[in-house]
Specification:
Number of strands: 7
Oligomer: single chain
Shape: globular
Mean pLDDT: 78
Strand content: 15-25%
Distance between the termini: 42 Å
CATH architecture: 2-Layer Sandwich
Order of helices and strands: HHEEHEEEHEEH
Number of helices: 5
Helix content: 25-40%
Structural class: alpha/beta
Radius of gyration: 17 Å
CATH topology: Double Stranded RNA Binding Domain
Low-confidence stretches: 1-35
């Protein structure tokens, strides 16, 4: 199936989401972690790194796609701040490890991914399928909007996936950039909380 079709699937349901229902959704996404060959969590132990770089940006998104450009500096800034606090500094390219991230946004009708900095891997489509199943498979008929951030840490020489983590949150509308930046930092810190660095 072409990525554009995988990225956008829809049905028709609308209402408002209750906080308890969102916890059920997040748990559903986590339960999918072991259901296929594409794991939603990976931890291969301590990571040996002093430097990291982000995956090079792929080709620009098509004109019809919502690339949400403003989100990238916020996510990259949060990842850079977290890893710098562990003694791993960002370099433009050629770091000891490569950091890739995938943003999945959706509701109980459709999901879409922003994969500009995730690289060319089948995992992106598989993770989108998992999120689609979790987002749209909820028995709760109430409307919600949520976002999932997936972060991968990859060995830059062997390309082995060393760490994958994710977190899901309800999407906030009409908030300041400061609030959005703070929330993204909180999500990134949660995802990278268990990363162990051995320099």
């Amino acid at each position: 199936m072409p990525p554009a079709l995988k990225a956008e699937r829809s049905t028709q349901r609308q209402a408002t989401m209750k906080p308890r229902s969102f916890l059920t959704l997040a748990a559903g996404i986590l339960m999918l972690a072991g259901c296929s060959s594409t794991p939603a969590k990976v931890d291969s132990g301590p990571i040996r790194a002093r430097t990291f770089s982000f995956v090079g940006r792929g080709k620009p998104a098509p004109a019809y796609a919502d690339s949400r450009e403003a989100i990238h500096p916020m996510i990259q800034g949060a990842i850079t701040k977290n890893l710098a606090g562990r003694g791993v500094s960002q370099v433009p390219n050629g770091g000891d490890v490569t950091v890739a991230y995938l943003v999945i946004a959706g509701n109980n009708a459709s999901v879409t991914s922003i994969n500009d900095y995730f690289g060319y891997r089948e995992d992106g489509a598989d993770l989108l399928d998992k999120a689609h199943t979790a987002y749209t498979g909820s028995k709760n008929p109430n409307y919600f909007e949520a976002g999932t951030l997936v972060i991968d840490i990859i060995d830059s020489k062997s390309f082995k996936l060393l760490k994958r983590g994710h977190a899901t949150r309800s999407l906030l509308r009409n908030v300041s950039d400061d609030v959005r930046t703070e929330r993204i930092q909180e999500v990134v810190d949660e995802i990278l909380r268990d990363v162990r660095i051995a320099q």
